[in-house]
Structure formats: structure tokens, C-alpha cells
Amino acid sequence: KAVLSQIEEKEDMYHCYVTVDKEGALAQAAAVQKKIDEGFESPLAGVPVAIKDNMCTEGLLTTCSSKILGNFVPTYSSEAVLNLKRAGAVILGKTNMDEFAMGSTTETSAFGATKNPWNTKHVPGGSSGGSAAAVAAKECFYALGSDTGGSIRQPASFCGVVGLKPTYGTVSRYGLIAYGSSLDQIGPLCKDVTDCATIMEVISSYDPKDSTSVKRADTDFTSALKDDVKGMRIGLPKDYFGQGLDPEVKSAVQKAAKVLKEKGALVEEFDLGLLEYAIPTYYTIASAEASSNLERFDGIKYGYRTESYEGLHNMYKKSRSEGFGPEVKRRIMLGSFVLSSGYYDAYYLKALKAKALIKKAFDEAFARYDVILGPVAPTTAPGLGESLSDPIKMYLGDIYTISINLAGLPGLSMPCGLDTRGLPIGLQLIGDCFQEKKLIQTAYAYE
Ligand code: GLN
Question: Which of these CATH numbers, 3.90.1300.10, 3.40.109.10, 3.40.50.720, 3.30.365.10, describes 1-447?
Fold first, then answer.
């Protein structure tokens, strides 16, 4: 009830949600209370959560913030949502996002932009901007987001909350509407590192319904909540502190590294390399996968269908032309181009080779370091409207987050200060595959 009244009070100002399920949330809460009275125990029992609107929720509108799914009510729930429900979570509603998770500001949503609760003239980041803003505005206790190239970590950073993109395969993608399937991963956005570890324990699971799901025996993430980084080897990639990084962000992140050093971590600079290839590689692969994944939205099986048409092909064409927004169309065109015969070898195949090299560079780094530390984004939250006119500039803002998805690694974003305008600055901790616990331990010690 407290969180619903907060939504009532603040939602007009911030627009974090696409759908608020007030009646449903109250009914779920009453049902969980009954179970608790009968002895049910879980750290998340009765705690209200917001879900990014690209995760299917049975009986509840799931739009991907797109007109093409504007009327889509799934008949099943995603596995991550089911894991939360089994733990007694109360689903409050669905949060706003960039259309199909394509964007870095939540402004490509077909339902209007979300505002940053720290300063409503600024974006909350994206694509999970609704989830991050809802946590920052206390319109939920925690939220789920998805991260294909930074979409959990970057909005967490812009909104001053904690976000974790787990190792690829840790959280089931079943029921997550696909953007770049080889990169997509669900994770928490929350107030602090303790919440992050607690939520991760609940949402991580092996799921045969997701063919890339991994069986892990080490998902006792809360065991890593230790205020101790003595001997932790932390590497600072010089390339992450070079040209293009805002000086205020740089100094806040360097200060955070110093705090960890004072606590006993071994902090050292090193050359990671290949950073210049991250953006072209990511946008080639992500767009290629998106163009294929979005073929299913054809106006037939579900979602939006154009009102008048002549014949099947015209119906496809009009439904897709009217249903998708400009950023999504740009990616579909780019993706179709790089996959087309004659260009496949020159672009898509080359991007896959670059991806393998990026992974190798991280493998070599993790032979020497437990954790890599750097900024989440080159700047703090841009002003509303600044990014929409210049997509390339927006893509450049993903420079520090996208390699982590290409390599399948876990990455954690947490607050490390404010800039002179009072906007949050984010710190990113990157780990080797399956080393979330080292990230959680380092983050907890810093926090
Ligand atoms: N900004 C990136 C993109 O537009 C990342 C988005 C994401 O992680 N979903 O692709």
C-alpha cells in the first residue's frame, strides 16, 4: 500500500511504468500474507517488485514499449518472473523502456519518456530506464531489467541505484522478448548490494526451456556479502579512462578505486585494448540478431495489425511500418544489411571474429585480476531530447558496457558520487564468467 501510494503521488512526474496493476498487486499481497501466516519463509515474501515490460507476465499487458505489442497480453510468464513469484514477490506492474530495449535513454518508448527522479530535465538512461527510475523514486522496492549492451548497468548508474548484469546463461531468458539473443540477460536493479545478492539468489536458475541456460552450483550470492577486499586483485583498464570520459566521472571512479586500495585491494592499471572495436562489433551483432528476432511481429499471430490493407504482403508491410518506431526500423535495416549475401563476410562474420578477440583480451586480463574496475558510461545522464537527434552519439555512450555482453561476462554498476549538477555517477565492476560473487564482495566492501 505504501508503494502504491508513492506511485500515485509520483508517477505523473516520472512516468516509470507502462502498466500499474494495483488490484493484482493487492490480491497477490493478501495471498502471500496468508502463506506467511501459514509459515512460508522467503527474503522476498511480500516485497513489491516492478518488471521491465519486455518480460512476459501471464494475463498482464507486455508491450516492449512498442505500438506493435500495444495490445499483447501473454498467456504465460517468463521464468525469471515465475522464480520471483515462487519466492512470494508481489508484481506491481511493468516498467517503461526503450522500444524493444533499443536505446540508452528510454526516449524511444512508444508511450513517452521516463524522467530521471534526480532531475526531471534529464533522462533516466536506458533501456531499463523505467525500472531504474522506479527504484530511485521509491515506486517499487526493486525491479528486474534486461541488459543486452548495458541496459541494466547504465540506467542504474544514471539513477544512483545498484544493477547487475549476470554471466550469460545465469538467469533464464524464457519469456524475455528477444532483442540480441546471444547478449540478452535479465538482472536486478535495486537499492543496495545486499538486495542485489538476495534477488540474484532467487532469479538465477537452470531452465531447460532456455537452451543457453547454465547449471550452476555457486548461486549462493549472499555468502559474498563480506566487508573484505584484502588481496583482491583489481585492474583498471587505461583505455577506460582515456579520451571522451567526463573529468568528473573519471575522478569519482578513480576515487572509488583508491577507497578499495585503502581497504587492502591490490589496484593496478593495465592495457585491455580493442576498445575501439567494441561499438561497431556490438551494433553489427545486436542489429543482426534483432532483425531476425523481430521478424515474428508480422501482424498475424499477436500484436498490432494495420486497419486497411490489400493482400498479405501489404498487410505485413503496413503493420510493421506503422507498428515499429524509427530506432527499431534503423536496427532492422542495419541488421538485414549485414546479414545479406555479399555483405555477410565483410560485416557480420568480421564482427564475430572481433567478438572472439574481445573475449580473449578479457580472458588474459582475468588471468591477472579478480575484478576490472571502470566507469559505466562516459558521462552522467544527458538532458531529455539530447540523444534522439543523434543516434551515433547515443551509441558512443555504450562504449564501456557493451564489450561485457559480447564476452558474456558479469558486470555490476553502483553509485560512486554525484557530479556538480547533482546527478549520480556510476562505478562498474566487471568479473570473469561465473565470478559474480567477487563483484558482490568488492561492491559490498566499497558500499
Ligand atoms: N544502448 C544499447 C542498445 O541500444 C544497449 C541496450 C540494451 O542493453 N538493451 O543496443
Answer: 3.90.1300.10
pLDDT tens-place string over residues 84-142 = 999 999 999 999 999 999 999 999 999 999 999 999 999 999 999 999 999 999 999 99
- Active-site residue, 52 included: yes
Question: At 282, phi and psi to the nearest 5?
Answer: -60, -50
255 classed as catalytic: no
Mutate to test the pocket of ligand 1, among 52, 98, 164, 331 (most ligand atoms within 8 A of CB): 98
Q: How far apart are CA 334 and CA 321, in angstroms?
A: 16
The one-letter code for the residue type at 331 is R
- State pLDDT tens for residues 413-446: 999 999 999 999 999 999 999 999 999 999 999 9
pTM of structure? 0.98
Identify whether 127 is a catalytic site residue. yes
- Given 151, 204, 403, 413, which residue is catalytic? 151
Comparing CA positions, the residue from 390, 188, 388, 150 lying closest to residue 278 is 150
**Residues within a 6 A CB radius of ligand 1:** 101-104, 127, 147-151, 179, 286, 398
User: Which sequence spans correspond to the domains of the chain?
Assistant: 1-447
The atom of ligand 1 lying closest to the CA of 398 is 1
**Among 127, 188, 120, 117, which residue's Cα sits nearest to residue 155?**
127
